[in-house]
Write a structure and sequence with these properties.
- The chain has two domains: 172 residues, no CATH class; 174 residues, no CATH class.
- Helix content is 55%, strand content 17%.
- α1 packs across α13, α2 crosses α13 and α13 runs antiparallel to α14.
Length: 384
């Protein structure tokens, strides 16, 4: 208890300097925690991936389509329960600043994704309306849309103005479910394309395939690709998790920069803390010489310096972690349209604790080495 009291008294001997250092560490931990939370938000879609869903797309790229005739052949493979055609629509509402994901799906899409929760009456209305559309709760809140509203999207991949009537609003079963989606009937898109864009009908961006057992995903994926090998449109089938990761990989550079900035922030603050500890140690060289004269060994002196460094770094880290929660909530409200989930995880807090410990160690290494190796006579000369 006496040693702990001594550590706190020494750590806050120069109160302004200590509190400024603590504040610097707190800001660094806050920034680092928010950046890591942002990286985790990128991967939130991966967390909700189901082992019982696989995705079939063109082996060349997502920009190349597959024939609709593939659906029947995929459905005949052993272990396949459901096959749903999906087309990325890429429509624009007002302008590019109002971007949201929108795509055409077949009706059995709702069966493949039971984590989308609907009002039964609204779901029925959607299934019976050729121009009906379904939107997520966050998307509805973003634009103030409600059931019955007519929405017009300007086509990019499929030119023209497309009108839809909102028939249902879904909510997620948990916070990992993306509530920012807009989807409508695949038949409506396909029929219109056949009439206006010759040669582009009966084309599919990807197939969502529901399988009986998640353990058979790799085997079923291989069976799908084997059927269409050496065809005009070969396929690449992968688990939903792998598919989502491949989509995220398109933003690899952004994620890498965020992680790099997070690391740089910690390194800079470690240097600031090291400078603070060096100043403190230089001012107390005479005290350490007296302690050596009284029989204190290098280990005990080193423990004092390391202890003070840890008190400051952990105090700053704790302050930063406490601030991370309200800051993350503020970011969630601001960026909720871009990330389905923005919450501080245990892993992020664990990383913050490790960062604090690293700062504490780095800041104390050089001052400890200098204090231990200074000669008693040289230290005593500085007193007075």
């Amino acid at each position: 208890m006496f040693l702990l009291k001594l550590l706190f008294k020494n750590a806050f001997r120069h109160k302004l300097r200590s509190w400024l250092t603590i504040l610097s560490i707190a800001i660094a931990i806050l920034a680092s925690g928010l950046l890591r939370t942002m990286v985790e938000a990128f991967y939130s879609g991966v967390e909700r991936s189901s082992a019982n869903r696989i995705v079939t797309r063109n082996a060349i790229s997502m920009t190349f389509s597959l024939p609709y005739s593939y659906k029947e052949k995929i459905g005949q493979i052993s272990g396949v329960r459901e096959v749903c055609a999906v087309n990325w629509f890429g429509g624009i509402f007002i302008d590019e600043k109002h971007f949201f994901a929108n795509f055409a799906v077949e009706d059995n899409y709702l069966d493949l994704y039971p984590d989308y929760l609907f009002d039964p009456a609204e779901k029925k209305d959607y299934l019976h309306d050729r121009k009906g559309a379904v939107i997520g709760r966050k998307l509805a809140d973003r634009f103030g849309w409600k059931v019955g509203d007519t929405i017009s999207l300007r086509g990019t991949i499929y030119p023209g103005n497309w009108d839809f009537t909102i028939r249902a609003v879904y909510t997620g079963r948990d916070e990992n479910v993306d509530e920012r989606l807009f989807f409508f009937h695949w038949d409506y898109l396909n029929e219109a394309v056949k009439q206006t864009l010759k040669g582009r009908g009966d084309q599919v961006s990807a197939y969502i395939v529901g399988i009986e057992r998640g353990d058979d995903a790799a085997e079923t994926a291989s069976a799908v690709d084997a059927i269409f090998r050496n065809s005009m449109a070969e396929t690449l089938t992968e688990t939903e998790k792998s598919f989502n990761l491949s989509m995220i990989s398109m933003a690899d550079s952004i994620i890498m920069i965020i992680r790099l900035v997070s690391l740089v922030v910690i390194v800079i603050i470690a240097a600031v803390a090291a400078n603070t500890m060096s100043m403190t140690t230089r001012e107390r060289i005479g005290e350490f010489a007296v302690l050596k004269t009284l029989g204190f060994g290098g280990g005990r002196i080193g423990a004092l310096i390391f202890g003070e460094s840890f008190v400051i770094s952990l105090a700053g880290g704790l302050f930063g972690m406490v601030l991370t929660f309200p800051a993350a909530e503020m970011f969630r409200q601001l960026l909720g349209n871009f990330f389905p989930k923005f919450t501080v995880t245990t892993a992020t807090l664990g990383s913050d604790v490790i960062a604090c410990c690293v700062i504490g160690v780095v800041a104390a290494v050089v001052p400890t080495w200098r204090s231990i190796h200074i000669r008693i006579a040289d230290g005593l000369r500085r007193i007075g």
